[in-house]
Automatic annotation (TrEMBL), chains A, B:
Protein species of origin: Pediococcus inopinatus
Name of one Pfam family that matches: Rrf2
InterPro entries the record matches: Tscrpt_reg_Rrf2, WH-like_DNA-bd_sf, WH_DNA-bd_sf
Source domain of life: Bacteria
Name this polypeptide is given: Rrf2 family transcriptional regulator
Top-level taxonomy: Bacteria, Bacillati, Bacillota, Bacilli, Lactobacillales
């Protein structure tokens, strides 16, 4: 779900902005405008993967462990939104070998799976071109990111 | 929904394979392994957009109107899976101006919308690089499409 990615990006920005103050998940949740329960799962993943440090409970709270310029947007995307494992429910035709008289139906699954997989690779590689520092520029100067992409694609 | 795209691709392949025989939606549905009701909607769109010709009812059926090499995969993708109009449900933070004390929360929506929109543009441009003739090669020689992408990206 894309929301998980947004939760991660927003949380890391918020921790950076308030560094070195320890931020409780409750405060973070208010900025994200989400229930604290929803974001704890993502915070736990970010903690496990070394993006943030800290603890829950009394006097607890999180701090950013890495510089925004060292956090790749694509890595964060892959971490929070894993690739689709099976495209079966998006694909037409019969399972292999069921109907030898209809090669299209027999082979659609393999061909479309490759198409969708390669398209998704391209999609993800787009995110990998940027760091959170790039995105943060856009937060304060909206339009920066669009310009950056335009320039890169020239 | 990605399934609509697969329905369109599969239908056009099937009509081409059986040209110039008129194909009823019932026969098409059997190849797609879907209920005929599910595919009629897509067939109607393909008909309206000039990909296929024909009629429903007695002696009815569809024929392909264009060559596979003239049908762009990306056009078909855009036609069957329109771009997301609003990313609001995937985005954290408050609506603009609600909380001037928290610029991150205020600005996340604009920044993430640009990020998601530009990433989706890239995703769709991948599909636009190919025609149905490219995909059909892969149906009969699986692996062709993967090779083609590899070669193009060099």
């Amino acid at each position: 779900m894309k929301l998980d990615f947004s939760v991660a990006v927003h949380s890391l920005f918020y921790l950076e902005e308030n560094n070195p103050r320890k931020i409780a998940s409750r405060e973070l949740a208010a900025s994200l405008d989400l229930n604290a329960v929803v974001i704890r799962n993502i915070l736990s993943v970010l903690h496990k993967k070394g993006y943030i440090e800290g603890s829950v409970g009394k006097n607890g709270g999180y701090q950013l462990k890495r510089a925004l310029a060292d956090i790749n947007v694509g890595e964060l995307y892959d971490l929070t939104i894993p690739p689709t494992i099976s495209y079966a429910r998006f694909i037409t035709g019969k399972s292999e070998g069921v109907n030898q008289a209809d090669p299209i139906s027999d082979n659609m699954s393999e061909t479309l799976t490759d198409l969708f997989t390669l398209a998704d690779d391209q999609y993800r590689s787009f995110y990998h071109r940027f760091t959170l520092a790039d995105l943060k520029q856009d937060l304060y100067h909206h339009g920066y990111f669009k310009q950056l992409v335009k320039k890169n694609d020239k």
